[in-house]
C-alpha cells in the first residue's frame, strides 16, 4: 500500500504547490553586474568556484551538466543544444528581451538581501535597482572589510613615502581610520535599508579569530602600520593581516552589542562566510567550529553561518542548534554541487538544526541566472526530501509546509526584522473531472478572434501633440467620434479592446475595477481575470449599493445615502492599464462609470459628467483641448508614537528631506534619487510618461510633471499615477500625501494646464468663463478647510485676488501662451473629474456668452503681483473680487452662482453640497491634529 494514504494526498499536493511557488526572502546575494562588464566574467562560473585553468574542467561536472539542461528550458533552446548554443541563445535574450529574462529569473523572489561589497560600485548595478524585480524593497548587507578598505583608500590616496617618515602620520591615520570605521558601522545600524553585516575574514585569514576584544586591540598596532605602508607603496588596499582582520570583526561585534536598547534584545545579524569558496580560501580554516569561543562572547549578536558551511555542514549545524543566536544558511550549494550533494547538505542540516534556525539564500551574483538556478534546484531537492520524510512518517504534510514557509520566508523575515508580508495563493488549481458547460462555441460567441488584430491605435498610448500654439485634435482611445454627437444609449463593451489588451499583457490575472467617489476616495473591487472576461463578454456590470455614493471617507453616512436601490459599476476598457511590477498581484487597473439597472448613465457620476461636458465642447463649439497635470506630493516618514505634549516632538510625521528649495538637489535629496526614479520607472512600465521631476519648495515635497493628454485620459492617468506614487512610497515605509499643508510654510498644490484648440477664443473661455465663476469653482478645486491655508499672497500660490496674468504666478489663473492656461487654485484633495468638469462648464458659459468676439469689460492682464496694487490700480485691471477665504465661502459662492450651477448636472451639485456640509461637520468635530492625520492618511 502507498505509504501516503489517500486522505493525505491532497495535503501532499498542497506541499508541492507551496514548495514550488512560495515567495522567497533571499537572505544572502550579490549585485548583478553592469552590461558594460558582463564579458569580464566567464558565464560558466555560475556553477563552480574554480578559476583560471581549473575552470576548463567544469564542463564535465554534474553541477554544470544539470544547470545546462535547466538553462535550455529557461532560454527555450532545442533539447540537443550544446553549451555554445546555450550561450548564443542567452545573448539573443539579453539583446531582444532582457527584462523578460530578468523577470523569469526572479519569479517568486519576494525580497533580496544584497552584500554589495563584492565588486567596485562602478562595475555592478546598485542594490536598490534590484527592487524592480522583487515584490519588496531590497536591503543591504554591509561587508565590513569593504568598508575598511575603501576607507583606507580615501585616507591615504594622496599620501607618499615622505608622509610615512612623519612621526604623527601613522598614529593619526589609526585614529582617523578607527573613528571613521566606527561611524560608518553605527550609521549602518541606524539605516533602515541595512539588514545586517558580513565578514569575509574566512577568505583572508581564516575563522580562527581571536575571541577577546581587548587582546585583539593590543595586537593590532604593528600589523596596522605594515598595512598602511603597503597601501601607500603598492596601492593595494586588501586587508590580509590576521590581527587587523580579527580586530575589524571584533570591533564590529562590540558596536553591535553596545547599541542594544535592552539586555534581552538582539542586534542586527552578522553574517560570516564559512566553508565553500574559491582557492583563495584555506579550507581547513574555513571550519565554523573555530567560531565557538567568539559566538559565546557575543550572545546578543545573531550569527549567520553562510553557504551551508560546506563541507562542514554538521559542525555549523551543531552551533546553530546549541546557541540561540546562531543560524545556518543553506545557500551557495545550489547550484554549485550535484543534486546528491545538495540533498546530503540538507539532510545534514536537518540532522540537528530546528527548522526555525535555517535560512535560504541563493548567493546569486553577477548573472540573473544564478538566482534562478539556485531557486529552482533548491525547490526540487527540498521537495524530494520532504516527501521522503513524509513517506517514512517523520513529518506530516502540514509540518513540512510550515517548515518550508519558515525556511523560505518567515525565518529571515523575523531575524532581519523586515516586517514583510508573504502574498501567496494557497489554492491548487485542479482540473475538473467533467465538463459542465457546452464546449462548442455558438456562432455569435463573443470570444471569437477578430479577423484582423486591433492595431496600436486601440491602446492607451497614442500621443497627443504638445505644442502650445497649434494643437491638433487629439488622437487617442478617448477621442470622440465625428459630428453629430452619438445618441445617449447605454454603453456597451468593446470586447476587442479587452482581447487586444490581454494579447499584450497575457500575465494579468486580476483587474482592479476602480472609481472615484465624491470625496475623491478611490474605491476598488478586485476581480479575477476569468470573471472579468465573462462579465465583459456577457455585458454585465458590478452591482453596488446606491447608498455607497453618499458615504464619506470613513463610511460615515450623509443625507445623500439611500439605503435602497442599486448602482452598477461599468469598467471603461479604454482606461485598462497593467500595474507596475511591484504590485503584489499580476494585475491591471481600469476606471469605471456609474450606471443604472438598465445601463443608462447616472446623473451623479463624476466621470460621466466630465465626458458630457467634453462632448458638448467638441460638438457644439468645435473645440477640443489637452490637459496636463503637475503632481505635487510630500513624502513623509512616520515618527514613533510620542507622549510629549510638545506639538513638534509629538508630530507623527517627518518630511523625507528637509533641506528644500525649488529645483535644488541637496545631498539628502540626491540620496533619494533611487527612490524617486523607482517611481518614474514604475510609471514608465505602465506607459505613464513623466516629462520631468524635481524638488519643490516645501520640506519633503517633489513634483512629477505629466504630459498633456485628452481630458478624460488625462484625469484617468493622473489617478493611476498618484496611486503608483503612494504604493512605491509605502514599499519604502513612507507616506506620499497630497495634503495641501502637511507642515507650516509652503503648501502642496495640484496645478492643471489646459490648452484649447483652436486657441483663438481662449479669452472668452478662460476670462469670460472660468475667471468669472472662479469663486464657485473653488468649491470643487479646493474642497477642504485646509485647502485655503495654502493660499496666501506673495508666496507663488496664486494669491487671494480673482485675477489673471500672463506668466503671473501670483494670480489663480495664469496665461502661458495663446490657448495654454494654468489653473493654480487647485489641490490634491479635489475630485479631479468634478474640478475639470467645473472648469470646462465655466468655460462653456464664457464661449456661449460671446461665441465669436472677445467681450468688453473683461478683467485685464495683470502684469504684477495684485497684492502690491492699491484699490484704484486693481480696479483699473478689473480686479474687484477676493478669492474665497475658506471652504464655507466657496460653498456659498457655488450655491449663489445660479448660472454656473445650471451648467452642471443639478443632482450632482446638490449631492455634492450636502456631502460637503456633512464632511465638514465630521472634520470639525476632530482636533486639528486628528484632522491633519485623517487627511494625510487618505490623500
From TrEMBL:
Residue ranges annotated for the GS catalytic domain, each copy included: 606-939
Biased composition (Polar residues): 455-470
SUPFAM superfamilies recorded: Glutamine synthetase/guanido kinase, Metallo-dependent hydrolases
GO molecular function: glutamine synthetase activity; hydrolase activity
Pfam families in the record: Amidohydro_2, Gln-synt_C
Disordered: annotated segments: 446-473
Similarity section: Belongs to the glutamine synthetase family.
Designated name of the protein: GS catalytic domain-containing protein
